[in-house]
């Protein structure tokens, strides 16, 4: 288990960067099945990364801004997933 966590610590920034690039490759107006599936996966992955690696997001308040913006502009069908990612991300900003 510890080796998996160490691998995630090494690969987390790379994974996050790839996720963000995949989101950036689609406009907010695209609503075909591939765009929806990609965005769904990307927002879910951001939420999972925020849960497992909160330190990855602590200095990245732009991620919170990005998720709140997505709540405004993305299709209704994606909003629940974005809300879940936002909730997961909120724990990353808690001061211990």
Automatic annotation (TrEMBL):
GO biological process: ERAD pathway; proteasome assembly
InterPro entries per record: Ecm29_N (IPR024372)
Origin superkingdom: Eukaryota
Domain Proteasome component Ecm29 N-terminal: 4-94
Keywords assigned: Proteasome, Repeat
GO MF term set: molecular adaptor activity
The UniProt record lists the keyword Repeat: yes
GO cellular component, as recorded: cytoplasm; nucleus; proteasome complex
Pfam families named among the record's database cross-references: ECM29_N
PANTHER family for this protein: PROTEASOME ADAPTER AND SCAFFOLD PROTEIN ECM29, TRANSLATIONAL ACTIVATOR GCN1-RELATED
Name of the protein: Proteasome component Ecm
């Amino acid at each position: 288990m510890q080796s998996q966590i160490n691998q995630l610590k090494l690969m987390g920034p790379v994974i996050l960067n790839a996720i963000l690039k995949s989101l950036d490759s689609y406009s907010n107006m695209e609503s075909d099945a591939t765009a929806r599936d990609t965005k769904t996966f990307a927002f879910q992955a951001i939420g999972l990364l925020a849960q497992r690696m909160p330190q990855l997001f602590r200095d990245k308040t732009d991620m919170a801004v990005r998720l709140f913006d997505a709540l405004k502009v993305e299709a209704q069908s994606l909003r629940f997933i974005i809300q879940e990612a936002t909730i997961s991300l909120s724990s990353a900003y808690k001061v211990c």
